[in-house]
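Case study B.
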Amino acid sequence: MPRNYFVVLLLTSLTGLFALGFGYVLRNYLDPAPVSAPASRAVVPNIKPFALVDQNEQAVTEASYRGQWLLVFFGFTRCPDICPTSMIYASDLLKELGPAAEQMKVIFVSIDPERDTPSALKDYLANFDPRIVGLTGTPEHIAEITKGYGVYYTKRKLDGVDDYTMDHSTAFYLVGPEGGLRRAYSLQRGADQMTADIRTAITPKE
Amino acid sequence: MRNIILALSLLFSTSAYAGDPTVTVTGAWVRQSLGQTGMTAGYLLIENKGAQDDKLLNITTSINAVAHLHENSMKDGVMSMKPLQGLPIKAGQSLEMKPGNGLHIMIMGLKNPLKPGDPLTLDLEFERAGHIKVDAKVRGIERAQ
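Model:
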């Protein structure tokens, strides 16, 4: 009996420690430096290779966008609030950047690939700036690309209806032309500063 | 007899007073549904101008759809959405739902796409104030605020 108690205690402490550690890693990764810091250097190693498909059913890999800045958002089409808000922001950003927007692709990666087919993405993205690219793929391929960004997502059953929603990281990730992740932005921290920071980052230096 | 009438009229005037809108719901709007999703979100402002706390219990819509009150919470950069079982609104408190701000009305199971200008009424049931019906404007995609 005392041995059982000890085992339970040990397991509980280990779980607690693990949760603390995981939370610490997540927070440090997802809580980016102040928006005023320059986005001039890569903060993590290069984005891993990926194989996905866009909203027009064209195959896309990490090589498809090499040489361009990327602004990557992970979301899903049945996301009622934060995803449309983020895509409205991204559409406004592309307009505000003017010609500088040619240096950058905005990419919406689905973290709900079971429901987000290329055609679902196409119909959804038709509501926003036509330059926004939607990517989806097999659940395995989506899991792979999210790992490279430290993105978290999980299914959550909705009460009372036969449906689920997704918990997910909601940052925008800025990737440099060489494929290195430069920064993560939270829309909650202010859209104007994010726009200014991205403009500075992607504008070619004289 | 006159006393009874007086008493009755007092009673009615009192109940009419109790029904005054101490809780108001304004600025209701719902984003158009996007693509094949069959769902969207709505936002509004609830003000409790009365002296007593109230609670929003339930929301129904005039269309064939299910409405749930949801709250997003952000923790370590991860957005989680959970349904709320009632939303307390304290005396003197106002509560504004705004895009990307956490609280919203999730409208699910739409049989047809919801388009800008479509007629839509929301029926909010409060513990004290009873049912408050508001017309919600269905808006297209525009800047978040």
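The helical segments of chain A are 2-30, 82-97, 118-125, 139-149, 191-202. The remaining cases will be described in the next quarterly update.
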